[in-house]
Amino acid sequence: MELLAADGPLFVTMCIDKQMFGIEVKNVRDVLRQQKITSIPLSPPEVAGSLNLRGRIVTVIDMRKRLKIAPTENTQQNTFVVVELKGELYSLMVDSVGEVLTASTNMIEKVPANLNQEWKNIASGIYKLDGELLVLVDVQSLLSL
Predict the structure, then answer these.
(1) Element (H, E) at 126
(2) Residue 100 has what pLDDT?
(3) Per residue in 84-114, is it b (16+ CB within 10 Å) or e — as a string?
(4) Where are the alpha helices (DSSP H) in 6-93?
(5) H helices within 30-127, ranges in order?
(6) What does DSSP say about strands 88-94 and 56-62: parallel, antiparallel, or unpaired?
(7) What is the C-alpha R_g of the chain?
(8) What is d(CA 75, CA 66) in angstroms, rounded to the nearest whole number?
(9) How many alpha carbons lie under 13 Å from residue 138 in its C-beta half-sphere?
(10) What is the pTM of this model?
(11) 3-7, 33-37, 83-87: least confidently modelled range
């Protein structure tokens, strides 16, 4: 089945501490379930370690730490969204991954001034869903550690 963007970009939705975030499908390479993570000495706090993805070493970014959100007790249920930037793969460790949705281009709004500063630094816009906001993630800003 082929997904077509009728009038806007497609986003993979992910949840971090009950907040929905979206990354454009064109940036997503894979979605993984529980993985073995190897720690990397002297790495920044938001780098959880690395994992092996079909022979490639992939840096794992703990999105809770990256966004200054309190850690969760249940890390066994984490999901990993693999994104690519400048030929390098990165795995974003999130609470869960939702569906793929099409965002109407004319419904994407600018980042509000009152948004949490950490979120504002990585957001390219906001998309209103029924009863909640989807924070649209700019992968390049997110991975500027």
Answers:
(1) strand 123-129
(2) 93
(3) eeeeebbbbbbbebbeebebeeeebeebeee
(4) 63-66
(5) 63-66, 117-122
(6) parallel
(7) 15
(8) 16
(9) 14
(10) 0.87
(11) 3-7
Q: Can you tell me which residue has the tokens 């009152």? A: 114
Q: Within 10 Å of residue 65's Cβ, how many Cβ atoms? A: 16
Token pair for 51: 């994992």
The H or E element containing residue 32 is strand 28-32
* Residue whose token pair is 């004319």: 106
Four-residue CA torsion sign, 45, 51, 53, 54: positive
For residue 99, give every residue at least 6 positions away whose Cβ sits within 8 Å of its Cβ, in sequence order, or none: 13
pLDDT digits (tens, 9 = 90+) for 34-83: 888 999 999 999 999 999 999 999 999 999 999 999 887 766 678 999 99
For residue 132, give every residue at least 6 positions away whose Cβ sits within 8 Å of its Cβ, in sequence order, or none: 20
Pairing of strands 79-85, 132-137: unpaired
Contact 105, 9 (CB under 8 A): yes
24's CB contacts (< 8 A; 6+ apart) are 9, 10, 11, 12, 136, 139
Beta-sheet strands, E only, within the chain? 10-16, 19-24, 28-32, 47-53, 56-62, 79-85, 88-94, 96-102, 108-109, 123-129, 132-137
